[in-house]
Amino acid sequence: MDKLTKEQVIRRLLIAEGHVKKVKKMVEEGNYCLDVIHQSQAIQSALRKVDEIVLHGHLHTCVLHDVHGTKSEKEKLVEEVLGVFRKTDLSKH
C-alpha cells in the first residue's frame, strides 16, 4: 500500500472509530433507536469507502504492473473494476 493510500485509510478509520464510540454512547444513554441505526449506517458507509480506497490502491500498485496498455487504458480498467465493486455494494441495500 502506498503512503497516500495508507494515510487516507487511516484517516477514514479514525473517523469511523469516532463514530463507533458515538454510537456506543448513544446505546448506553438509551437514545432513539432510529438515531442509533442512522449512525450505524454512517459507520458502514465509511468502512465501505475504506474498502474502496484499499481496492483502488491495490489495483494501481499491484494489478496494473501486470497489465499492458496506456495510462489511460489502465485507468479505465481500474474504474471498470471499481464500478463493479460499487454496483455490488449498492445491490446489498
Keywords:
single chain, 93 residues, mainly alpha, Methane Monooxygenase Hydroxylase, Chain G, domain 1, 84% helix, 0% strand, elongated
Classify the fold: give the CATH topology: Methane Monooxygenase Hydroxylase, Chain G, domain 1
Which band does the percent of strand residues land in? under 5%
**Shape, principal axes of CA atoms:** elongated
Order of helices and strands: HHH
Gyration radius from CA atoms, angstroms: 17 Å
Fourth-level CATH superfamily:
Metal-sensitive repressor, helix protomer
- Domain count: 1
- Structural class of the secondary elements? mainly alpha
Q: Briefly, what is this?
A:
Helix content is 84%, strand content 0%.
